[in-house]
């Protein structure tokens, strides 16, 4: 059974807060300290009992921590790692919950002193509502959690973080950080970019005083829901996973071209075949 | 108050069945007859009390009907109109619930004999589950219903169909058939084509024995839910609204290009601005 003397969560939002709740509910940590940019969020987290202590500044918050969890926006990881690196104790484990790995993992790792183990992670969980008030100890139940150890990752630290996610009810998958980024450029980053592009395409048009978008039905709303996500966060993800995402956008444009061509040629058989393949695959996902 | 002696619904699925339920629950018709390709569906509709009579063949089913509703797949409209046209009584109203108007409206209208009024319609309603067993008299409550009269559409027939949809709780919007097709190529047909293209893009990749798609989260699932829709129906819609949809796919590709370009140039400001515009618009839709 894993047990930490002190865990520091940097960024106590939905994901960081939910992991804190798991630690508390399962009795996995003696002390849970929260840190982050927003004092208001930390005070709320304290009031809700998600964290037991509020860090006075990032450096102080990580002192003596056995486990530090980066759960702030992925665009802040390098800066935060640079700031806290020198203040981590020997033997501490640093992990994160960011949705980009690859180069970012290597950049963070390079900022850490010897004796600190970095175990990069990415739980595939979330819900429509954000923020610490939505945090729940059951958020990760049945979800996949991907860990992307590097050549330098300490085996024991990896096992500890793996045990933590298993305690949270997640199914841990080990993966190369670059493979991770290729997969998620396809299944997550591309759909977000595509949803933003879709809303912007339709928003150009007006019919009388009403924008075309006011005629949208449930399909359009489902399709574009993810375009309501945080623009700053997605800006950072797109930049951090740039080359993969550019590849995927280009592949997506090829796929759109096939449909466009079949429509232009009035090729009903081809259209139906493409739609049938996609439909069967999508139904399989539930 | 409108009242019909005999209404015939051709295609008793979710939409046709729900309109039949409205007619019955509001006491707007003495007789409701169902017709369509599938005898099984009609028997179920009869058993559920959605229709009161089952037509013995399409021609016979429309005889003496005051109102005939085309609610079969939009790809069948021309063939059905050609078949039933000569059998419609003088003074009958033909309406439909199809999601393509424009040229299709003109084609159907050309097949009707003098003395029959055609009032093209498109209720913006639906739900994930299809079929007559899902039909409900409240499906159209608060929904938009677009009517696209032509130069030939009889004013009184238009008012009658308008009153029917208002009785169903819908907000009726009158619109030119070609404007309708341009709007819906943007807000409905493009997202469907884009969702099919997205699933096919991601399906190309495998990681070990698992397809990338198995790593998809709630975002991807929301985004591609509409790709589970009927391939035949969407093949027909894409072909019937071809030129508009090709225009929209091209505009969408331009919007994707802007994102791709900003990523390539590492232009975070531009990316954030595009995402922020889309995000604000999307949040406004609820």
Topology:
The structure is a homodimer of 286-residue chains.
Chain A: E1 4-10, H1 14-25, E2 29-35, H2 39-47, E3 53-54, H3 58-62, E4 67-70, H4 77-84, E5 93-96, H5 102-110, E6 117-119, E7 121-123, E8 144-147, H6 155-167, E9 171-174, H7 177-203, E10 206-207, E11 210-211, H8 218-224, H9 231-240, H10 242-264, H11 268-285
Parallel strand pairs in A: 1-2, 1-4, 2-3, 4-5, 5-6, 8-9
Antiparallel strand pairs in A: 7-8, 10-11
Helix pairs in contact in A: 7-10
Commentary on this structure:
The structure is a homodimer of 286-residue chains. By secondary structure, chain A is of the alpha/beta class. Helices cover 49% and strands 15% of the residues of chain A. Chain A has two domains: 4-175, Rossmann fold (3-Layer(aba) Sandwich), CATH 3.40.50.720; 179-285, 6-phosphogluconate dehydrogenase C-terminal like domain (6-phosphogluconate dehydrogenase C-terminal fold). Chain A has helices at residues 14-25, 39-47, 58-62, 77-84, 102-110, 155-167, 177-203, 218-224, 231-240, 242-264, 268-285; strands at 4-10, 29-35, 53-54, 67-70, 93-96, 117-119, 121-123, 144-147, 171-174, 206-207, 210-211. In chain A, helix 1 links the parallel strand 1 and strand 2. In chain A, helix 7 crosses helix 10 (242-264). Chains A and B meet through helix 7, helix 8, helix 9, helix 10 and helix 11 of A and helix 7, helix 8, helix 9, helix 10 and helix 11 of B.
């Amino acid at each position: 059974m894993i047990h930490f003397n002190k865990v520091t969560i940097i960024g106590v939002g939905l994901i960081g807060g939910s992991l804190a709740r798991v630690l508390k509910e399962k009795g996995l940590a003696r002390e849970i300290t929260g840190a982050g940019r927003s004092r208001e969020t930390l005070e709320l987290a304290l009031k809700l009992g998600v964290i037991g202590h509020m860090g006075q500044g990032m450096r102080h918050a990580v002192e003596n921590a056995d486990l530090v969890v980066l759960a702030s926006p992925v665009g802040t990881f390098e800066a935060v790692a640079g700031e806290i690196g020198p203040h981590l104790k020997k033997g501490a484990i640093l992990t994160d919950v960011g949705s980009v790995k690859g180069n970012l993992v290597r950049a963070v790792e390079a900022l850490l002193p010897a004796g600190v183990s970095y175990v990069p992670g990415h739980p595939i969980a979330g819900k429509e509502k954000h923020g610490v008030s939505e945090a729940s100890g059951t958020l990760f139940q049945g979800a996949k959690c991907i860990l992307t150890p590097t050549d330098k990752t300490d085996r024991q630290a990896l096992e500890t973080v793996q045990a933590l996610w298993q305690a949270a009810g997640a199914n841990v998958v080990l993966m190369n950080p670059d493979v991770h980024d290729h997969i998620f450029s396809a299944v997550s980053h591309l759909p977000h970019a595509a949803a933003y592009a879709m809303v912007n395409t339709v928003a150009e048009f007006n019919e009388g005083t009403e924008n075309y978008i006011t005629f949208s039905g449930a399909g359009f709303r489902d399709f574009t829901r993810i375009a309501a996500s945080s623009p700053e966060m997605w800006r950072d993800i797109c930049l951090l996973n740039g080359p993969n995402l550019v590849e995927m956008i280009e592949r997506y444009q090829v796929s759109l071209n096939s449909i466009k061509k079949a429509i232009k040629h009035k090729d009903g058989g081809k259209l139906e075949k493409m739609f049938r393949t996609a439909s069967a695959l999508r139904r399989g996902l539930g």
